[in-house]
Design goal:
This protein is α/β, with parallel strands linked by helices and 495 residues long. It is built from 16 helices and 16 strands. It has a seven-stranded mixed β-sheet. Helix 1 packs parallel to helix 5, helix 1 (20-32) crosses helix 15 and helix 6 (213-224) crosses helix 11 (327-339). The two termini are 41 Å apart.
Length: 495
């Protein structure tokens, strides 16, 4: 790669956001360049690095929806987290993590603690890299003659030579019909804050808007708190996450060698692969796994109008099959539906009006012209992160966009980047010192939500930054070291 001259003093690297993506970039970079002079500062208000929206929840009912043995942090040691979970003693605290087939689905906060421990251990072992965790938000980022100026909350500033944007998932946006009752005590617009569900009473009749993974988490949280009222969950198609298969999953299907140029062609290819899988006695998950691994090639081959068609028509089906539920959550949802405690409706939300301390809600069932009106005591918005508005909503991103240094992508997925994670500015020029990791780079990569893809991309970005640092030191970055041995880093972090 070519780019601007690298400063002769120790480069200052700023990582904005300390969820999994930000923590992973820092971890991999520390491992790749332990003896290179540099300063890495990660800006994250939370105490635990690696948490973010996905793994910050303290609710013990919220579980990782992928078996621990597939939560691969290291390509050369994919089962590291599973061994850590067993050997660290965490499994004794949470025996329910182990399901009937022997796989483990730990609580989500446990994964964040593991990542935080690994990162801080790697920082202690680095020879010349200064690592800092600053518990403040970045409110403005501006280009300067010598790199970037970051203004933090409280008006403190930092200088940086290279910035990694690891902002992650924004909070959910209210669907239009819910905006009429915004501010109502029993409208839970964002279910993720610790006490978000507190206003809900034990016998309240609840409407959940959205039927994805968050819906399952909310049902689990409510029932664990003693809620006994009826719950209705609604989405336009009524699709719910598929349960995890108990068997081994191996990719089946080649969708990248001659990738489809239309969504219709892609759909036909997938249906053929599903028939082949069924004939071979293999689960449909094998086809989904192949699609996941080949997603970037598939996505890049589709023209922009076809990408819009996919997002409009097929994305809900992809999400339901790609992002499957943990067995514990899926089992609860199945039991609740069987006994009538949870109803799933395929319907669109037409209007919402206050009715005393509750709501009158008009729904139009899928395929019908007439609406039905029902009363609910509380509403929980589970529509997912509002990625289409993140550039406007996040002050740091908005400041870069206002200066023309960054732009939202045309698909409402996040930020416009290239396949080297470099931000593309208003003039169409990629910037090697302004990088994006995680879901906000999906417009280039196609699939950056699940941990395997995010882990791969953070590795890629860490390698690019290591190369950039290597030029400043006039040396090649050291080879990737093996994953830390199980136990030792975690024990040091615990101390």
């Amino acid at each position: 790669m070519t780019g601007p001259a690298v400063p002769q003093i120790a480069p200052q690297i700023a990582i904005v956001g300390g969820g999994f993506t930000g923590a992973a970039v820092a971890l991999y970079l520390l491992q790749k360049t332990p003896s290179v002079r540099a300063s890495i500062e990660i800006f994250e208000p939370g105490t635990v690095l690696g948490a973010g929206l996905a793994y910050a929840t303290p609710d013990p009912e919220h579980r990782i929806n992928v078996a621990a043995a597939r939560m691969a942090l290291f390509s050369d040691d994919p089962t590291h987290f599973d061994r850590w979970f067993h050997l660290s003693g965490e499994i004794k605290v949470d025996p329910r993590a182990v399901v009937s087939d022997g796989r483990t689905y730990p609580r989500r906060a446990v994964f964040a603690r593991a990542v935080d421990g690994l990162l801080r251990a790697a920082a202690r072992e680095a020879d010349q890299i200064e690592f800092r965790h600053t518990r403040r938000r970045v409110e403005q980022i501006a280009r300067s003659a010598d790199g970037y100026r970051l203004r933090l909350e409280g008006n403190e500033t930092r200088r940086a030579d290279l910035v990694v944007l690891a902002v992650g998932h924004p909070t959910p946006a209210l669907p239009k019909p819910l905006r009429a009752v915004a501010g109502h005590l029993r409208l839970i617009g964002n279910p993720w804050p610790v006490d978000a569900l507190q206003p809900i009473r034990p016998t309240d009749r609840i409407l959940i808007v959205g039927t994805g993974l968050t819906m399952g988490d909310v049902v689990a949280s409510l029932r664990a708190r003693g809620h006994e009222g009826a719950i209705t969950a609604v989405s336009r198609r009524g699709l719910t996450p598929r349960p995890r298969t108990a068997g081994k999953v191996e990719p089946l299907g080649d969708f990248a060698r001659e990738p489809a140029r239309t969504v219709s062609t892609l759909l036909r290819q997938v249906r053929v692969a599903l028939r082949d899988a069924k004939a071979a006695g293999r689960p449909w998950e094998d086809v989904v796994d192949a699609l996941r691994q080949q997603a970037t090639a598939i996505w890049r081959a589709l023209p922009a109008p076809e990408k819009h068609r996919f997002l409009r028509h097929l994305r809900p089906y992809w999400d339901a099959h790609r992002y499957q539920a943990a067995p514990q959550i899926d089992g609860l949802v199945v039991r609740e539906r069987q006994k009538g405690g949870l109803q799933i409706l395929a319907a669109s939300l037409q209007s919402v009006a206050p009715d005393g301390d509750g709501f009158q809600v008009a729904l139009r069932p899928r395929g019908q012209a007439e609406t039905v009106t029902e009363r609910f005591d509380a509403i929980v918005n589970c529509t997912g992160p509002a990625h289409d508005s993140v550039v406007r909503a996040n002050p740091a991103l908005a400041s870069l966009a206002g200066a023309g240094a960054l732009q939202a992508d045309e698909f409402g997925l996040g930020i416009e980047t290239d396949l080297e994670a470099r931000v593309i500015d208003r003039d169409g020029t990629p910037n090697e010192t302004l990088l994006v990791v995680g879901p906000l780079a999906r417009s280039a990569y196609g699939e950056l939500m699940g941990l395997p893809q995010v882990s791969w991309q953070t590795h890629q970005v860490a390698e690019q930054v290591a190369e950039w640092l290597g030029r400043s030191e006039r040396q090649l970055s050291s080879p990737r070291i093996p994953a830390p041995s199980v136990g030792a880093p975690e024990r040091r972090a615990a101390g």
